[in-house]
Write a structure and sequence with these properties.
Elements: E1 2-5, E2 11-13, E3 23-26, H1 50-62, E4 67-69, H2 80-96, E5 99-103, H3 112-118, H4 129-135, E6 140-143, E7 149-152, H5 157-164, H6 174-179, H7 182-187, H8 199-202, H9 205-208, H10 221-233, E8 262-263, E9 271-275, E10 278-291, E11 301-310, E12 315-325, E13 328-331, E14 338-341, H11 342-345, E15 349-359, H12 367-374, E16 378-379, E17 386-392, E18 397-398, E19 403-404, E20 419-425, E21 433-438, E22 445-450, H13 455-462, H14 466-469, H15 473-479, E23 489-493, E24 498-506, E25 516-525
Parallel strand pairs: 3-4, 3-5, 5-6, 13-15, 16-25
Antiparallel strand pairs: 1-2, 1-4, 6-7, 8-11, 9-10, 10-11, 10-15, 11-12, 12-13, 12-14, 16-19, 17-20, 18-19, 20-21, 21-22, 23-24, 24-25
Length: 527
């Protein structure tokens, strides 16, 4: 680490094990700062930025400190390796400093009440790099344009909170910082700016607890790399609590505005990672089937991946997912975030999805993929008489489109597994109905049974581990031989009437490749 001798103004290098106590400067850059190469020039004092260097050295000596660190002149920015090391180490350097000196070059008052009124207008609060310089140090003091001490981080805590929305307990405490959700930490930078686009990512490295190489010239890609690095290190779904509608990752910290009170769920340790297929959520991912009142073009029922909550779990928020194909989802473009009161969530049906992928970057070119899984798939239209209660296999079932998707995105995929649905009928005393679809050949066929007469079938298909992938027709016929006797029509006798109920699969729309509808019809039989 390179430090300035506060007495001689000479630069001195120290190994990590031999670094003396030092003061560190936090400021906003001007047009004529003192650089690393200027420090060896006899004309260094003519630079406008020299005043800040000299004042920092004076204040350090007043506190019996012999060394200071100033970012403008303690880093050789002509060396990309040194710059990368410095930026990745900067949070630690500010944290380990004995004292941080914040020099506000646009703050004139020195009287406390006037300082508190003028403080929010200072440029220092709007810069990206100064965020970690506020949070990291153990001790931090503010000085006005003339170098007069105007207050400490503690004495100005109320004004600081109004400027930043950062909880006081986080300031100066690394452990408290890391308890905050990723979304909250991102939100603190939402209104800040940096001169270089890439620096909006690099200035957050220490706050998010990650390291990565610097690539100036990559633009917004730096912020994407930052988020990918966070995903590798933290099991915190709040990183997806951002506003872009089509993708999972944000373009900048601005997408996290208003998330300063968003918290991760306690004891939530989902295993997720970035892959070339998308975001992989390993194990069982709890999704909730929720009714969404939104755009009329969207289906009434959506799968919601809850990311976290506000306050004391009173309001939870998540993102809506649309099923693209088996185990493949995307973020719904009609919604950025959806919100639910805590009591509402428990009433939503829990839908476990195992080892799923969420496409990270969705664009129109991927619409063809979604359509290919739906071409000649099996659709369950809503009717007034028959109400769908369940459908398997869950891997293929899309509750939003009410469709059993094809297992592969081909013209037609023959499928050896049983496709099954349970219905109730709005006919008094009518038992539950089970529709079984056989897609081993095309076109697929449907048969019908009454669940109370075929309890064995219901136990085999709708309970336990087979819900996810169902079971092969061969196994079902082996365990329930009566399945071979089923047809597409059954007779149901109630206390007062008799009915004939039939099922068929029909392509009721004229468009090529349109799905096959499950059509249930009922005819009352004469007594």
């Amino acid at each position: 680490m390179r430090l300035i001798n506060a007495k001689t103004y000479d630069l001195e290098d120290f190994s990590l094990k031999a670094i003396p106590e030092y003061a560190i400067l936090s400021h906003t850059w001007g047009d004529d700062e003192v650089t690393y190469h200027d420090m060896s020039s006899p004309d260094r004092s003519v630079r406008q930025g020299w005043y800040k260097v000299a004042q920092t050295c004076r204040i350090a000596q007043d506190h019996q400190l012999d060394y200071v660190w100033v970012d403008t002149c303690c880093i050789d920015k002509s060396s990309s390796a040194e710059l990368t090391e410095a930026i990745n180490s900067m949070f630690q350097w500010y944290r380990k400093a004995y004292k941080c000196i914040v020099m506000l070059s646009d703050l004139v008052p020195s009287i406390e009440d006037e300082v508190k009124r003028a403080l929010p207008a200072c440029r220092w609060w709007s810069r990206g790099w100064t965020l970690q310089e506020l949070i990291a140090p153990r001790r931090l003091n503010f000085y006005n344009a003339s170098g007069t001490h105007v207050g400490s981080r503690e004495s100005l805590s109320e004004a600081i909170n109004k400027c930043t929305n950062i909880p006081s307990r986080v300031l100066g405490s690394r452990s408290a910082l890391m308890t905050m959700s990723v979304a909250a930490r991102m939100s603190w930078a939402a209104a800040r700016e940096t001169t270089r686009v890439e620096d909006m990512a690099y200035c957050l490295l220490g706050i998010l607890g990650v390291n990565m190489p610097l690539i100036y010239g990559e633009g917004d890609r730096a912020f994407r790399r930052l988020q990918e690095e966070v995903v590798r290190r933290e099991s915190d779904l709040t990183i997806f609590a951002c506003e872009p509608k089509h993708g999972l990752f944000a373009d900048s910290a601005r997408a996290f505005r208003n998330q300063e009170n968003f918290e991760r769920y306690p004891n939530s340790f989902l295993d997720f990672s970035v892959t070339n297929r998308g975001l992989r959520l390993s194990g069982q991912t709890p999704l909730r089937l929720c009714r969404i009142n939104g755009n009329p073009r969207t289906p009434p029922w959506m799968l919601v991946l809850f990311l976290g909550h506000f306050g004391d779990l009173t309001t939870s928020s998540g993102i809506c997912l649309r099923k693209v194909g088996p185990k493949l989802f995307r973020k719904d473009p009609e919604f950025s975030m959806v919100f639910f009161q805590g009591s509402e969530i428990g009433r939503r049906r829990l839908f476990y999805a195992t080892d799923i992928y969420v496409i990270i970057d969705w664009d129109e070119s991927k619409n063809l993929l979604s359509k290919s899984f739906r071409t000649r798939a099996i659709h369950v239209p809503e009717t007034d008489i028959f109400s769908l209660q369940d459908a398997i296999p869950e891997t293929l079932w899309d509750p939003s489109d009410r469709m059993l998707l094809k297992p592969q995105p081909y013209k037609w995929s023959r499928y050896q597994m049983v496709l099954a649905m349970r219905f109730t009928a709005a006919i008094p005393d009518t038992p539950e109905l089970v529709v079984l679809c056989d897609a081993r050949e095309y076109p697929p066929k449907a048969v019908l049974c009454v669940s109370q007469d075929q309890c064995r079938i219901e136990d085999l298909l709708f309970r336990g581990s087979r819900r996810e992938d169902s079971m092969p027709w061969f196994d079902l016929e082996l365990h329930a031989p009566s399945i071979r006797e089923l047809s597409d029509t059954i007779k149901v006798d109630t206390d007062s009437k008799s009915y004939t109920i039939s099922v068929s699969l029909r392509q009721q729309r004229l468009e090529p490749g349109s799905p096959l509808d499950v059509v249930l019809e009922v005819v009352e039989q004469p007594q």
